[in-house]
Amino acid sequence: MNPEPLPAVRAVRAQPALTRPGGSPLKVLVVDDEPSLAELLTSALRYEGWDVRAVLDGHGAIRAAREVEPDVVVLDVMLPDLDGLSVLRRIREHDPHVPVLFLTARDAVEDRVAGLLAGGDDYVTKPFSLEEVVARLRGLLRRAGASAAVPDAAIVVGDLVLDEDSHDVTRGGDPVALSATEFELLRFLMRNQRRVVSKAEILDRVWHYDFGGQTNIVELYISYLRRKIEKGRTPMIHTLRGVGYVLKPGADAT
Fold this sequence. Notes:
The protein is an alpha/beta fold. It has helices at 35-47, 58-68, 84-94, 109-117, 130-144, 180-191, 199-207, 217-229; strands spanning 18-19, 27-31, 51-55, 72-76, 100-104, 122-125, 148-149, 154-157, 160-163, 169-171, 174-175, 237-240, 244-247. A hairpin with a 5-residue loop joins strand 9 (160-163) and strand 10 (169-171).
């Protein structure tokens, strides 16, 4: 039975966001042979601002772990080709210290013990709450020293962090100096991350239509933002001609 998809989309993040100490997104490898469950986990973890890679089998997991070098692994015990314990041993040959959270339908005590003795750091049985999985992953990441807390007032998209209280903006841990209008425009785009917003919406929310009749004011300020947050980095602000703009983490560039 699939878990309840309650935590996949939340209006308010219950806990401060976690990032790598330098401010870049934490990397998570999800391994589960049920596509719908893998997609659900991916959505929930991406909501936390993390960079997620999902695979459906053991051999794919071993390859992905070498390519991605994740900060934490969510690993199903029962896979179609290799069992999760074998996958864990192969991953640990490459990275002996990466934290691993086992997911399994087996809830017998001996199964839990086997998973932990094999080197798993935590163990959750199906069906499970996504809230619980996220909470346990946060705990593993903190204990492993792989993460740093982002203030409650921060909005995080990939490695871009905007603090609504202090008005500080950083990308990859580097400060970004913005004017008041640039800050409001970026805040609006980040609050609507992954959603296309039209020029009319931007004018209404950022300028409240008080823009002196300059119909190109949105394009002008978008260009200012791009120069400041994208210089020498992966683009995050994308134009959909005739529709509007969308801000996405750098890895999602179109």
